[in-house]
Amino acid sequence: MKRLVFAGLLCLGLAMAHADYKSSVPAAGATVKTAPRSVVINFTQAVEVKLSTFKVYPLNAPQEAWSSSTRLRRLAQPLVREVLVLKGDAARRIDSGVSTSARTAQSVSLSLKPGLAPGAYVVMWKVLGVDGHAEPGYFVFVYKP
Ligand SMILES: [Cu+2]
Q1: Lowest-confidence pick of 23-27, 52-56, 94-98, 130-134
Q2: I want to staple 47 with a disulfide (CB 3.0 to 4.6 A). Which of 42, 105, 127, 133 is the partner?
């Protein structure tokens, strides 16, 4: 509790950003020609890796939507809301977990299962920043060989 209060004050006092999305590989909204074997998400602040949730899901989006990152984001929203909180959903996910072993990190790597099919994919998270604030987020990328 004390830690949370302190973190809150720290955020206000220094006008620090929370642990928000900063950049990633693949980048948000990107179309990649080769199947990625991992996803790296860079945050604006270090996160508590073990106390955070990361998932990558296939997005059931029509191919004509693949070129519109705005449309893909909108299509992904209900999926994120549904599955981010799910437990035991490893079979539905295309990631095989976090490969970053540090307790806290500003950059988090997720391994992807091999044999990715062409399509749109949603990378989603709920991270606990080292400032004690939980922040959800997601982005979509497209694999189109
Ligand atoms: Cu914060």
Answers
A1: 130-134
A2: 127
Q: The CATH number of the domain where 110 resides is what?
A: 2.60.40.1220
The whole domain housing 39 covers 17-143
CA–centroid distance, 14 to ligand 1, in Å, is: 10
DSSP-derived secondary structure letter, 129: B
Query: Distance between alpha carbon 33 and the CA centroid of its chain, in Å?
Result: 20
d(C-alpha 109, C-alpha 102), whole Å: 11
**Residue 84 CA, ligand 1 centroid: distance in Å:** 21
Strand partners, 139: 123
SS3 102: coil
**How far is ligand 1, taken at its centre, from the CA of residue 129, in Å?**
7
CA of 145 to the centre of ligand 1 (A): 39
Look at residue 141 and give its three-state secondary structure.
strand
> Would you state the pLDDT for residue 70?
95
Distance 46 CA to ligand 1 centre (A): 11
Q: How many CA within 13 A on the CB side of residue 127?
A: 28
Q: Token pair for residue 84? A: 């981010």
